[in-house]
Design brief:
By secondary structure, the chain is α+β, with helices and mostly antiparallel strands. It is built from two helices and eleven strands. The strands form two sheets. The protein has a nine-stranded antiparallel beta sheet with strand order 6-5-10-11-1-2-3-9-8. It has a two-stranded antiparallel ribbon with strand order 4-7. A hairpin with a 4-residue loop joins strand 5 and strand 6.
């Protein structure tokens, strides 16, 4: 019984720490879907480019296998695996919302594919049994992040 009370107390304290981060989240989104929105941008480290993506919404995600993104354009699809393998949402139980963050490595092939035009993206997260996929449509009908 004591373990249950400690776990319950810890969960409440974690919720108190995470809730202000989620309430303060105010980044422009580039895609929207049934379960939330996608936000992010590109950055470069030591000459290597990455696309940082934040999924803001209702799902709570935890995986050590990364995720798979499928970008769809008018006439093509391109699939890429996330660079981030351990993905764990900052999640507020009281708000029923969270922020899930991960990155993609932008090699030359990925940049080329994203420049051709993206209208939608689906993100698949593996689970212990099966997988869960979330779909998003690009705001304004196209991918707005510069992938230089």
């Amino acid at each position: 019984m004591a373990y249950y009370n400690i776990a319950k107390h810890a969960k409440r304290n974690l919720d108190k720490l995470v809730t202000p981060k989620i309430q303060a989240f105010d980044e422009p989104s580039f895609a929207t879907g049934e379960f939330g929105t996608l936000h992010g941008g590109t950055y470069t480290v030591d000459g290597y480019s990455f696309l940082n993506i934040k999924f803001f919404g209702s799902p709570r995600i935890k995986t050590v296998k990364g995720c798979t993104l499928t970008f769809s354009g008018k006439s093509s699809e391109y699939t890429v695996q996330s660079e981030t393998k351990e993905i764990d949402s900052y999640y507020s139980e009281s708000m029923q919302k969270g922020i899930t963050e991960f990155e993609l490595f932008l090699d030359d092939e990925t940049r080329k594919e994203l420049r051709q035009g993206v209208q939608s993206v689906s993100i698949t997260f593996p689970k212990l049994f099966g997988k869960t996929t979330y779909s998003f449509e690009m705001i304004g009908g196209k991918f707005k992040i510069i992938v230089g």
